[in-house]
Structures are given as structure tokens and as C-alpha cells.
Amino acid sequence: MKFLISIINGPNLNLLGRREKIIYGTFSLDEICERLKIEFGKFCDLEFFQSNSEGSIIDYVHSSKSDGFVMNLGAYSHTSYAIRDAICAVSRPVVEVHISNVLNRENFRHVSIIAPVCIGYVVGFREFGYNLGILALLDHMLNLG
Ligand code: DQA
Q1: Are 58 and 82 in contact (CB under 8 A)?
Q2: Is 121 marked active-site?
Q3: What pLDDT is recorded for position 144?
Q4: pLDDT digits (tens, 9 = 90+) for 130-140
Q5: How remote is the CA of residue 74 from the centroid of ligand 1, in Å?
Q6: Beta carbons of 66 and 57 less than 8 angstroms apart
Q7: Alpha carbon separation from 88 to 36, 39, 82, 85, 119 (Å, rounded)
Q8: 76 an active-site residue?
């Protein structure tokens, strides 16, 4: 049996590859997702979801059949108690990912509302953070199995 993992991206991440390239790199979100499918397709099933809206992300989390989530919630990581509550409500493992190193940026990015309800937090490794997030989730789920 293969685990199903959802990769959730929040607001403004649809602009990857065009947005502040010095900070977020040159890969588009589609390119990142394609690479993840190639690299992890043998080991797990992946589903991809991006939305700029908090409510849509919450609805997706509620209805998802995934075994676990890798989430880059963009600025919602620093603000959204509602997404945090949704994560707690579905009781499935989550790894929070940020492309940039939020800890050496503005103060408001140093706080994550989401990280305390995640199994872990990956920041600063550019798009490779998604790979690390998937690996960490698989390791976590296999150890529980
Ligand atoms: C980000 C970091 C957030 O602070 C920011 O609001 C983003 C992108 C990252 O991946 O580095 O939109 O989540």
C-alpha cells in the first residue's frame, strides 16, 4: 500500500519563479510539483493543492483523504489560527515547509502559528524543502505502521 501525501501551497506561491526570485528562486510551482512526482512517485502518491484563500485551504484539509500533509502556507503560517484548528481537527501528520529561511527575515516571519501542531518544520532549503518534508512524513508514517 502506498501512502497518499498532499502538498498544500498557500497564498502567492502560485507566483513562484516570477516573484522575488532572489528570495524564492526561479522554479515555478508547476516545475516543483513535476519534480516531486518524478522523485517520489515510486514511493507514495502525491496530490497537489494551491490556493490564495484561507477558507479554501481549510475546506481542502477537511475533505482530503491524504495520510499526511506537507504545507507551505505562505503568510498564513504567521497568522492563521483557523488553519491550525483545521489541522488539529483532522489529526493527521503535517510538516511545515518554507522555501526561504524565515528566521533570518523580518520579525513577523519568525513566528509560526502552525509549527506547534506539526511533526516538524523545514525552512531555508529553497524548493528542496518539499523533498525534505515528504521524506520526514514518510519516515514518520512508516515508524507508526
Ligand atoms: C514563505 C515565507 C512566508 O513568510 C511568505 O509569506 C511566503 C513564502 C516561504 O516559502 O519562504 O509567502 O512561506
Answers
A1: yes
A2: no
A3: 80
A4: 999 999 999 99
A5: 4
A6: no
A7: 26, 29, 10, 5, 12
A8: no
Marked catalytic residue, from 24, 60, 76, 130:
24
> Taking a C-beta distance cutoff of 8 angstroms, is the pair 120, 95 a contact?
yes
Which residue segment(s) compose the domain that 131 sits in? 3-144
User: Under a CB-based contact definition with an 8 Å cutoff, are residues 97 and 108 in contact?
Assistant: no
Check pocket membership of 14 for ligand 1, CB cut-off 6 A: no
| Interval 42-73: pLDDT, tens | 999 999 999 999 999 999 999 999 999 999 99
Instruction: State the CATH number of the domain containing residue 18.
Output: 3.40.50.9100
Number of domains in the chain: 1
What is the atom index within ligand 1 of the atom nearest the CA of 78?
4
pTM above 0.85, yes or no: yes
